[in-house]
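Fill in residues.
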Protein backbone atom coordinates (compact mmCIF):
# COMPACT_ATOMS: atom_id res chain seq x y z
CA UNK A 1 0.00 0.00 0.00
CA UNK A 2 1.67 3.24 -1.15
CA UNK A 3 1.71 5.71 1.73
CA UNK A 4 2.49 8.91 -0.17
CA UNK A 5 -0.59 10.44 1.49
CA UNK A 6 0.30 11.54 5.02
CA UNK A 7 -2.81 13.52 6.04
CA UNK A 8 -6.49 12.97 5.28
CA UNK A 9 -9.52 15.20 5.99
CA UNK A 10 -13.06 13.92 6.59
CA UNK A 11 -16.33 15.86 6.37
CA UNK A 12 -20.05 15.22 6.50
CA UNK A 13 -22.32 16.92 4.01
CA UNK A 14 -26.01 17.11 3.03
CA UNK A 15 -28.83 15.64 5.13
CA UNK A 16 -27.35 13.96 8.19
CA UNK A 17 -28.03 10.29 8.90
CA UNK A 18 -27.49 7.85 11.77
CA UNK A 19 -24.13 6.14 11.29
CA UNK A 20 -22.26 9.23 10.14
CA UNK A 21 -20.49 9.44 13.51
CA UNK A 22 -19.54 5.77 13.30
CA UNK A 23 -18.09 6.45 9.86
CA UNK A 24 -16.13 9.49 11.10
CA UNK A 25 -14.79 7.31 13.92
CA UNK A 26 -13.72 4.62 11.48
CA UNK A 27 -11.96 7.06 9.13
CA UNK A 28 -10.07 8.65 12.04
CA UNK A 29 -9.09 5.32 13.58
CA UNK A 30 -8.02 3.81 10.26
CA UNK A 31 -5.76 6.84 9.74
CA UNK A 32 -4.34 6.33 13.24
CA UNK A 33 -3.85 2.62 12.51
CA UNK A 34 -1.82 3.51 9.42
CA UNK A 35 0.02 6.24 11.34
CA UNK A 36 -1.21 9.07 9.16
CA UNK A 37 -2.78 12.29 10.38
CA UNK A 38 -6.48 13.07 10.17
CA UNK A 39 -8.42 16.31 10.39
CA UNK A 40 -12.14 16.71 10.86
CA UNK A 41 -13.79 19.44 8.78
CA UNK A 42 -16.73 21.17 10.46
CA UNK A 43 -19.96 22.03 8.59
CA UNK A 44 -19.24 20.25 5.35
CA UNK A 45 -18.02 22.24 2.35
CA UNK A 46 -18.78 25.51 4.13
CA UNK A 47 -16.20 24.69 6.82
CA UNK A 48 -13.82 23.39 4.16
CA UNK A 49 -13.84 26.79 2.47
CA UNK A 50 -13.27 28.53 5.82
CA UNK A 51 -10.54 26.11 6.91
CA UNK A 52 -12.64 25.14 9.95
CA UNK A 53 -10.54 22.06 10.72
CA UNK A 54 -9.78 20.08 13.86
CA UNK A 55 -6.86 17.68 14.26
CA UNK A 56 -8.33 14.30 15.25
CA UNK A 57 -6.82 11.18 16.76
CA UNK A 58 -8.13 7.83 17.93
CA UNK A 59 -9.30 9.32 21.21
CA UNK A 60 -11.11 12.25 19.57
CA UNK A 61 -13.80 9.85 18.36
CA UNK A 62 -14.39 7.88 21.52
CA UNK A 63 -18.02 7.40 22.61
CA UNK A 64 -19.64 8.43 19.31
CA UNK A 65 -20.29 5.14 17.52
CA UNK A 66 -23.73 4.99 19.14
CA UNK A 67 -24.68 8.64 18.53
CA UNK A 68 -26.99 9.86 15.78
CA UNK A 69 -26.21 13.04 13.88
CA UNK A 70 -22.62 14.12 13.08
CA UNK A 71 -20.10 15.65 15.50
CA UNK A 72 -18.64 17.47 12.49
CA UNK A 73 -22.03 19.04 11.72
CA UNK A 74 -23.29 19.26 8.15
CA UNK A 75 -24.32 22.12 5.88
CA UNK A 76 -25.36 22.75 2.32
CA UNK A 77 -22.85 25.20 0.82
CA UNK A 78 -23.80 27.48 -2.08
CA UNK A 79 -20.27 28.91 -2.22
CA UNK A 80 -18.74 25.51 -2.93
CA UNK A 81 -20.80 25.47 -6.13
CA UNK A 82 -18.55 28.31 -7.35
CA UNK A 83 -15.02 27.85 -8.61
CA UNK A 84 -13.90 30.66 -6.27
CA UNK A 85 -15.32 28.74 -3.32
CA UNK A 86 -13.60 25.55 -4.38
CA UNK A 87 -10.37 27.49 -4.89
CA UNK A 88 -10.57 28.72 -1.27
CA UNK A 89 -11.24 25.17 -0.09
CA UNK A 90 -8.22 23.90 -2.01
CA UNK A 91 -6.01 26.59 -0.48
CA UNK A 92 -7.27 25.76 3.01
CA UNK A 93 -6.49 22.07 2.51
CA UNK A 94 -3.03 22.79 1.10
CA UNK A 95 -2.28 25.18 3.97
CA UNK A 96 -3.20 22.45 6.46
CA UNK A 97 -1.02 19.93 4.59
CA UNK A 98 -4.03 17.74 3.81
CA UNK A 99 -3.59 15.42 0.80
CA UNK A 100 -6.89 13.53 0.58
CA UNK A 101 -10.56 14.13 1.40
CA UNK A 102 -13.21 11.64 2.52
CA UNK A 103 -16.75 12.93 1.96
CA UNK A 104 -19.60 11.31 3.89
CA UNK A 105 -22.86 12.35 2.25
CA UNK A 106 -25.28 11.89 -0.64
CA UNK A 107 -25.13 12.32 -4.40
CA UNK A 108 -25.09 16.11 -4.16
CA UNK A 109 -22.01 15.98 -1.91
CA UNK A 110 -20.32 13.53 -4.26
CA UNK A 111 -20.95 15.84 -7.22
CA UNK A 112 -19.06 18.57 -5.39
CA UNK A 113 -16.22 16.18 -4.54
CA UNK A 114 -15.89 15.03 -8.15
CA UNK A 115 -15.77 18.57 -9.53
CA UNK A 116 -13.21 19.45 -6.86
CA UNK A 117 -11.02 16.57 -7.98
CA UNK A 118 -11.41 17.48 -11.65
CA UNK A 119 -10.37 21.08 -10.97
CA UNK A 120 -7.52 20.47 -8.54
CA UNK A 121 -6.59 16.81 -8.94
CA UNK A 122 -7.22 16.47 -5.23
CA UNK A 123 -7.85 12.81 -4.14
CA UNK A 124 -11.42 12.23 -2.92
CA UNK A 125 -13.37 9.21 -1.69
CA UNK A 126 -17.11 9.02 -0.95
CA UNK A 127 -18.99 7.22 1.81
CA UNK A 128 -22.77 7.08 1.09
CA UNK A 129 -24.52 8.67 4.07
CA UNK A 130 -28.25 9.31 3.65
CA UNK A 131 -31.41 7.67 5.00
CA UNK A 132 -32.96 7.63 1.50
CA UNK A 133 -30.91 4.68 0.18
CA UNK A 134 -31.07 6.36 -3.23
CA UNK A 135 -27.41 6.08 -4.20
CA UNK A 136 -26.30 3.74 -6.98
CA UNK A 137 -23.46 1.37 -6.08
CA UNK A 138 -24.51 0.21 -2.64
CA UNK A 139 -27.37 -1.95 -1.34
CA UNK A 140 -27.41 0.16 1.82
CA UNK A 141 -26.55 3.79 2.46
CA UNK A 142 -25.57 4.74 6.00
CA UNK A 143 -28.67 5.48 8.06
CA UNK A 144 -31.19 3.61 5.91
CA UNK A 145 -31.47 0.63 8.27
CA UNK A 146 -31.80 2.86 11.34
CA UNK A 147 -34.46 5.00 9.63
CA UNK A 148 -36.41 1.86 8.73
CA UNK A 149 -36.43 0.77 12.37
CA UNK A 150 -37.52 4.26 13.47
CA UNK A 151 -40.41 4.25 10.99
CA UNK A 152 -41.53 0.72 11.90
CA UNK A 153 -41.60 1.69 15.58
CA UNK A 154 -43.74 4.74 14.69
CA UNK A 155 -46.12 2.63 12.58
CA UNK A 156 -46.57 0.16 15.45
CA UNK A 157 -47.43 3.03 17.81
CA UNK A 158 -49.87 4.60 15.36
CA UNK A 159 -51.52 1.25 14.75
CA UNK A 160 -52.32 1.01 18.49
CA UNK A 161 -54.39 4.17 18.35
CA UNK A 162 -55.78 3.51 14.86
CA UNK A 163 -57.19 0.17 15.97
CA UNK A 164 -58.57 1.71 19.19
CA UNK A 165 -60.59 4.24 17.20
CA UNK A 166 -61.30 2.32 13.98
CA UNK A 167 -59.33 4.91 12.07
CA UNK A 168 -57.53 5.07 8.75
CA UNK A 169 -54.08 6.70 9.05
CA UNK A 170 -51.99 8.16 6.25
CA UNK A 171 -48.36 8.18 7.43
CA UNK A 172 -45.86 10.22 5.41
CA UNK A 173 -42.25 9.06 5.44
CA UNK A 174 -39.06 10.59 4.05
CA UNK A 175 -37.05 9.35 1.09
CA UNK A 176 -36.95 12.44 -1.11
CA UNK A 177 -37.97 11.12 -4.56
CA UNK A 178 -37.60 7.37 -3.93
CA UNK A 179 -39.77 4.89 -2.04
CA UNK A 180 -37.27 2.56 -0.35
CA UNK A 181 -38.13 3.67 3.18
CA UNK A 182 -41.88 3.52 2.49
CA UNK A 183 -41.78 0.09 0.85
CA UNK A 184 -39.56 -1.68 3.38
CA UNK A 185 -41.03 -0.07 6.50
CA UNK A 186 -44.55 -0.47 5.08
CA UNK A 187 -44.10 -4.22 4.69
CA UNK A 188 -42.51 -4.52 8.14
CA UNK A 189 -45.26 -2.39 9.68
CA UNK A 190 -48.02 -4.44 8.06
CA UNK A 191 -49.41 -1.44 6.19
CA UNK A 192 -52.56 -2.05 4.19
CA UNK A 193 -51.30 0.22 1.38
CA UNK A 194 -47.91 1.65 0.42
CA UNK A 195 -47.71 4.60 -2.00
CA UNK A 196 -44.33 5.20 -3.62
CA UNK A 197 -43.14 7.56 -6.39
CA UNK A 198 -41.99 4.59 -8.50
CA UNK A 199 -45.61 3.46 -8.91
CA UNK A 200 -48.74 5.48 -9.55
CA UNK A 201 -51.72 3.19 -9.10
CA UNK A 202 -54.24 6.03 -8.94
CA UNK A 203 -56.67 7.27 -6.32
CA UNK A 204 -59.64 5.13 -7.34
CA UNK A 205 -57.63 1.95 -6.99
CA UNK A 206 -56.56 3.10 -3.52
CA UNK A 207 -60.15 3.77 -2.41
CA UNK A 208 -61.20 0.46 -3.95
CA UNK A 209 -58.53 -1.47 -2.11
CA UNK A 210 -59.28 0.24 1.20
CA UNK A 211 -62.98 -0.53 0.78
CA UNK A 212 -62.08 -4.17 0.18
CA UNK A 213 -59.99 -4.13 3.39
CA UNK A 214 -62.98 -2.79 5.26
CA UNK A 215 -65.42 -5.31 3.88
CA UNK A 216 -62.93 -8.07 4.65
CA UNK A 217 -63.30 -7.04 8.29
CA UNK A 218 -60.43 -4.61 8.86
CA UNK A 219 -61.64 -1.98 11.31
CA UNK A 220 -58.55 0.23 10.88
CA UNK A 221 -55.97 0.72 8.15
CA UNK A 222 -52.52 2.22 7.69
CA UNK A 223 -51.39 3.76 4.40
CA UNK A 224 -47.69 4.58 4.13
CA UNK A 225 -47.03 7.47 1.75
CA UNK A 226 -43.51 8.23 0.54
CA UNK A 227 -43.02 12.01 0.53
CA UNK A 228 -42.13 11.87 -3.17
CA UNK A 229 -45.35 10.03 -4.04
CA UNK A 230 -47.25 11.69 -6.86
CA UNK A 231 -50.68 10.12 -6.41
CA UNK A 232 -52.10 13.19 -4.72
CA UNK A 233 -50.88 16.77 -4.48
CA UNK A 234 -49.91 16.13 -0.86
CA UNK A 235 -50.86 13.82 1.95
CA UNK A 236 -53.57 16.15 3.27
CA UNK A 237 -55.28 16.31 -0.14
CA UNK A 238 -55.03 12.53 -0.25
CA UNK A 239 -56.78 12.34 3.10
CA UNK A 240 -59.52 14.70 1.98
CA UNK A 241 -60.11 12.70 -1.21
CA UNK A 242 -60.42 9.42 0.70
CA UNK A 243 -62.55 11.14 3.36
CA UNK A 244 -64.98 12.27 0.67
CA UNK A 245 -65.01 8.97 -1.23
CA UNK A 246 -65.09 6.42 1.54
CA UNK A 247 -67.70 5.67 4.13
CA UNK A 248 -67.20 4.70 7.71
CA UNK A 249 -63.57 5.62 8.34
CA UNK A 250 -62.30 8.41 10.52
CA UNK A 251 -59.18 9.52 8.59
CA UNK A 252 -56.06 11.02 10.15
CA UNK A 253 -52.59 12.05 8.93
CA UNK A 254 -49.21 11.67 10.61
CA UNK A 255 -46.09 13.18 9.01
CA UNK A 256 -43.04 11.54 10.64
CA UNK A 257 -40.60 14.18 9.41
CA UNK A 258 -37.08 14.65 10.72
CA UNK A 259 -37.27 12.14 13.55
CA UNK A 260 -36.40 9.65 10.78
CA UNK A 261 -32.97 11.25 10.53
CA UNK A 262 -32.14 10.90 14.23
CA UNK A 263 -31.61 8.26 16.82
CA UNK A 264 -28.86 5.86 17.79
CA UNK A 265 -27.61 4.01 14.70
CA UNK A 266 -28.62 0.35 14.46
CA UNK A 267 -26.03 -2.41 14.81
CA UNK A 268 -26.18 -2.88 11.05
CA UNK A 269 -25.38 0.79 10.40
CA UNK A 270 -22.56 0.85 12.97
CA UNK A 271 -20.87 -2.16 11.38
CA UNK A 272 -21.49 -0.82 7.85
CA UNK A 273 -20.00 2.56 8.83
CA UNK A 274 -16.94 0.92 10.37
CA UNK A 275 -16.36 -1.17 7.24
CA UNK A 276 -16.87 1.80 4.91
CA UNK A 277 -14.42 4.00 6.81
CA UNK A 278 -11.68 1.39 6.57
CA UNK A 279 -12.36 0.76 2.88
CA UNK A 280 -12.36 4.47 2.05
CA UNK A 281 -9.07 5.28 3.80
CA UNK A 282 -7.21 2.15 2.69
CA UNK A 283 -8.38 2.63 -0.92
CA UNK A 284 -7.09 6.21 -0.82
CA UNK A 285 -3.77 5.07 0.67
CA UNK A 286 -3.66 2.53 -2.14
CA UNK A 287 -3.72 5.37 -4.63
CA UNK A 288 -7.42 5.26 -5.52
CA UNK A 289 -9.51 8.41 -5.99
CA UNK A 290 -12.98 9.41 -7.27
CA UNK A 291 -14.68 6.31 -5.91
CA UNK A 292 -17.57 5.69 -3.52
CA UNK A 293 -17.36 2.73 -1.19
CA UNK A 294 -20.47 0.53 -1.17
CA UNK A 295 -21.89 -2.73 0.09
CA UNK A 296 -22.84 -5.28 -2.58
CA UNK A 297 -23.74 -8.91 -1.79
CA UNK A 298 -22.12 -8.52 1.58
CA UNK A 299 -18.82 -7.25 0.20
CA UNK A 300 -17.22 -3.79 0.26
CA UNK A 301 -16.58 -2.52 -3.24
CA UNK A 302 -15.75 0.69 -5.08
CA UNK A 303 -18.02 2.45 -7.59
CA UNK A 304 -16.67 5.34 -9.70
CA UNK A 305 -18.15 8.54 -8.26
CA UNK A 306 -19.60 9.64 -11.60
CA UNK A 307 -21.51 6.33 -11.83
CA UNK A 308 -22.72 6.63 -8.22
CA UNK A 309 -23.95 10.15 -8.97
CA UNK A 310 -25.64 9.41 -12.29
CA UNK A 311 -26.93 5.93 -11.44
CA UNK A 312 -30.47 5.38 -10.24
CA UNK A 313 -31.57 2.87 -7.60
CA UNK A 314 -34.52 0.69 -8.60
CA UNK A 315 -37.39 -0.53 -6.49
CA UNK A 316 -37.04 -4.26 -5.77
CA UNK A 317 -39.87 -5.84 -7.80
CA UNK A 318 -39.91 -8.95 -5.65
CA UNK A 319 -40.46 -6.72 -2.61
CA UNK A 320 -43.23 -4.90 -4.45
CA UNK A 321 -44.93 -8.26 -5.10
CA UNK A 322 -44.55 -9.25 -1.46
CA UNK A 323 -46.21 -6.00 -0.38
CA UNK A 324 -49.13 -6.68 -2.77
CA UNK A 325 -49.60 -10.21 -1.42
CA UNK A 326 -49.32 -9.08 2.20
CA UNK A 327 -52.13 -6.56 1.76
CA UNK A 328 -54.57 -9.36 0.83
O1 LIG B 1 -32.03 13.27 1.95
C1 LIG B 1 -32.40 13.01 3.26
C2 LIG B 1 -33.67 13.75 3.57
O2 LIG B 1 -34.05 13.46 4.87
C3 LIG B 1 -34.82 13.42 2.64
O3 LIG B 1 -35.42 12.18 2.92
C4 LIG B 1 -35.71 14.61 2.88
O4 LIG B 1 -36.61 14.84 1.82
C5 LIG B 1 -34.69 15.75 2.98
O5 LIG B 1 -33.49 15.16 3.47
C6 LIG B 1 -35.11 16.85 3.91
O6 LIG B 1 -34.11 17.87 3.78
P1 LIG B 1 -33.96 19.01 4.91
O7 LIG B 1 -33.33 18.38 6.09
O8 LIG B 1 -33.07 20.03 4.25
O9 LIG B 1 -35.36 19.51 5.21
Amino acid sequence: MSQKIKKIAVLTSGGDSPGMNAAIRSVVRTCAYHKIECVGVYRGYEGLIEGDFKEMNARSVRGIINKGGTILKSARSKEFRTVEGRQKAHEALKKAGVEGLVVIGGDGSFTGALIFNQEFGFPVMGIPGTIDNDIFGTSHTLGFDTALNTVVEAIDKIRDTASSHNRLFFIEVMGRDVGHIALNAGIAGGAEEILIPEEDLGLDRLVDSLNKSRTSGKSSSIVIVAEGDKIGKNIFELKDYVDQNMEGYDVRVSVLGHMQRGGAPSCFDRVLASRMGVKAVESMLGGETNFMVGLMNGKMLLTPLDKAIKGKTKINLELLRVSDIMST
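Residues 144-164 form the longest helix (21 residues).
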